Amino acid sequence: MNGQAKIVEPRRLYQQVADQIRDLIDGGEFQPGTRLPSERDLAQKLGVSRPSLREALIALEIDGSVEIRMGSGVYVSLENGAQQARTRSLGDSPSELMQARSTLEGATIVMAASRIDDAGLLSLRAALDEMKKEIEAGRKPLDQDRRFHTMIAEQSGNTILARLVADLFDDRHSPISTQLRVKFEDRGTWGFALEEHEAILAALESHDPLLAQAAMRIHLENSRRRWIET
């Protein structure tokens, strides 16, 4: 031993909730092949919020313990007995991630609104035009979405804030966040996101910091709801 203490990463809430569900399955309350109670009933049974429950179910699906059938429900996997005893970390909680982004980007855009120039506004408009084309073509405009948010952060003039915004945005590529996107993002949800981006750009064009902040926070809260609470 080198004498250094091992750092133990705290278990995220979705891991703890997933472990509770796993214990119920292992204890025989939910049999392999059967459907779990509805999200509302299961959340009440466990005493957790529905967003936390949804994240836990996604984590269990990733490791093969359950199968989420859209429009039908969540089913215990037939081969559940072979799964691990505790839920591994699959990235930050998507719900907490969106809350963090709302706090950070809501503050950063206030700075950007007073500094952004015509060239910056034109770049944002170009990103939204490309985003619209991607949506109309049936593709997910992930690159254009990232560019829009990071360009706003860069307009704040603070390189540290810009880096933090980019880092938080890129956490969307964690296993749990990616699985949520696969299930709940579609052409319709991206259409709503584009409309909200247009409202953000309009506020920046007016150089109104409070309006821009409100538009950004509305967008990120709506995104969280579409992503986590649909």
Structural commentary:
This protein is mainly alpha-helical. The protein has 2 domains: 13-82, Arc Repressor Mutant, subunit A; 94-228, Four Helix Bundle (Hemerythrin (Met), subunit A) (Up-down Bundle). The chain is 65% helix and 3% strand. It contains 10 helices and 2 strands. The chain has helices at 13-26, 39-46, 50-62, 94-115, 118-136, 142-154, 159-170, 175-184, 187-205, 209-228, and strands spanning 66-69, 73-76. A two-stranded antiparallel sheet has the order 1-2. Helix 4 (94-115) runs antiparallel to helix 7 (159-170), helix 6 runs antiparallel to helix 7 (159-170) and helix 9 (187-205) packs antiparallel against helix 10. The protein is elongated. The N and C termini lie far apart (49 Å). The mean pLDDT is 91.
Number of folding domains? 2
Q: Which blocks of ≥5 consecutive residues have pLDDT under 50?
A: none
C-alpha-based Rg, rounded: 20 Å
- Structure annotation, total helices: 10
Query: What is the makeup of the main sheet?
Result: 2 strands, antiparallel
Task: Give the CATH class of the largest domain.
Answer: Mainly Alpha
The portion of residues assigned to helices is 55-70%
Please identify, by name, the CATH architecture of the largest domain.
Up-down Bundle
Would you tell me the structural class of the helices and strands? mainly alpha
Q: What would CATH call the homologous superfamily of the largest domain? A: GntR ligand-binding domain-like
Strand share of the residues?
A: under 5%
Could you give the distance between the termini?
49 Å
Strand order across the biggest sheet?
A: 1-2
Name the average pLDDT: 91
Query: What shape does the CA trace take?
Result: elongated
Order of helices and strands: HHHEEHHHHHHH
CATH topology of the largest domain: Four Helix Bundle (Hemerythrin (Met), subunit A)
Structure summary, number of beta strands: 2
